[in-house]
Design goal:
Elements: E1 2-5, E2 12-15, H1 24-37, E3 39-42, H2 49-57, E4 62-63, E5 78-82, E6 107-114, E7 122-126, H3 127-132, H4 136-142, E8 146-150, H5 154-159, E9 175-179, E10 181-183, E11 190-192, E12 199-202, H6 207-221, E13 227-230, E14 237-241, E15 245-249, E16 263-270
Parallel strand pairs: 2-3
Antiparallel strand pairs: 1-2, 3-14, 4-16, 5-16, 6-14, 6-16, 7-13, 7-15, 8-9, 8-12, 10-11
Bound molecules: succinic acid.
Succinic acid binds near residues 91, 97, 247 and 267.
């Protein structure tokens, strides 16, 4: 096995591991790598839909997205589609997946199916490092506080991404409160748990103070020093610990720049625990 770090902050590309091998020993190696690097990448993994599902189940029960339909034959798999004519990319701002849920996603297993020849990389930022390096005065203000995370509603997911279909649901926008600094259940590490896309306010603070603090925190957590960037190739798999990183799918599909290509990713999310 070979482990190549993507940056000094997080992310490692692993070679010499077959993701079809879901023996206890192999899964233990993969989980240890995940907890150490927060996001791990594997290229040339020709895994089938069923093999991706079997691998994901080794991390916990599979989570269905509240608003978006899975593949007809494999509802566990949410197919992320950016059509050639679209300029939007699902997940195109910093976020932690479904942080608005009561028990947000534990991990995501994302496989590239079709990728543009250029553009469409994904960035990740290490939120343990973000907490460690956050200004002490801000830390003291938020350490025991909760924040409100809101889902934005079905229209956000469907209107922006034409290649994807809504689940048949009347579920509107909903919110949940989570600690601003959460504890990783496996490693005990402290994690900064807010994100620009879904975190709306700090509970128990007036609007101005909450907005000012969140603006400073978002700016800090998005510092490039905390990030790594992955350039996709076909049949690559990323596994990220959704508690420990935020991520950003870069929508660099500008008009008249020859980027009118399709990007397709198969995403499986593993259900997480209530943040504490
Ligand atoms: C996501 O934000 O969940 C997807 C990331 C990607 O497509 O690169």
């Amino acid at each position: 096995m070979k482990v190549e770090l993507l940056s000094g902050a997080c992310g490692a590309e692993i070679t010499g591991i077959d993701l079809r091998d879901i023996s206890n020993d192999n899964i233990k190696i993969i989980k240890d790598l995940l907890f150490e690097h927060k996001v791990i990448f594997f290229r040339n993994q020709g895994i089938t839909h069923q093999e991706q599902i079997d691998l994901s189940k080794c991390f916990g029960p599979i989570e269905k997205h509240a608003y978006v339909k899975g593949l007809p034959a494999y509802p566990e798999i949410l197919r992320i589609v950016k059509e050639p004519f679209e300029k939007n990319n699902w997940g195109e701002n910093w976020h932690s997946d479904v942080s608005y849920n009561p028990e947000p996603t534990l991990a995501v297993i994302l496989k590239s199916v079709e990728i543009p020849p250029i553009g469409g990389d994904t960035m990740f930022a290490n939120m343990e490092l973000a907490w460690e390096t956050l200004d002490e005065k801000i830390k003291n203000k938020v350490r025991d506080k909760k924040a409100l995370h809101s889902s934005l509603g079905v229209a956000f997911f469907i209107d922006n991404y034409k290649g994807m279909e809504a689940r048949d649901t009347n579920l509107g926008e909903y919110s949940n409160e989570h600690p601003i600094v959460r504890t990783h259940p496996e490693t005990g590490k402290k994690i900064l748990y807010v994100n620009w896309t879904y975190t709306k306010s700090i509970i128990g603070m007036d609007k101005k103070e909450s907005d000012d603090l969140l603006t400073k925190i978002f700016k800090h957590q998005e510092r490039l020093e905390l990030t790594c960037r992955f350039k996709w190739t076909k049949n690559a798999v990323a596994i990220w610990d959704n508690r420990s990183v935020i991520h950003y799918a870069i929508a660099d599909y500008f008009p008249n720049r020859g980027l009118e290509h399709r990007r397709i990713m198969d995403r499986i999310a593993v259900r997480g625990e209530k943040p504490f």
